Amino acid sequence: QVQVVESGGGLVQPGGSLRLSCTASGLTFSNYAMGWFRQAPGKEREGVSCIWRSERSTYYADSVKGRFTLSRDNAQNTVYLEMNSLKPEDTAMYYCAANAANRCSSSWSAYDYGGQGTQVTVSS
Question: Which residues of 98-109 are buried (b: 16+ CB within 10 A; e: fewer)?
């Protein structure tokens, strides 16, 4: 049984940092592209970042480029989303997802497995 579990969310002040983790089990993690999405209340889920299985190739949405860094540790079946210089508009539920075809897509439905999310709130 495949499980994708996010952690690391919380409340942080503007300008602060958080590191989200996503651990996947029940699959050959190193074969999967791993993506992060977020969804704010009343808005559609949007793609934030993605890392291909090569560990060196990453994608970032323009809204987070230069502030977020995505990495993966295949030995730990985990990806890490380092978020710096956080803004109130980064407030959302953050979701992690796995794609078996090693595709990074901006569409949540393109992923094979997804987690339940972790809440990030940026507020003073």
Answer: bbeeeebbeebe
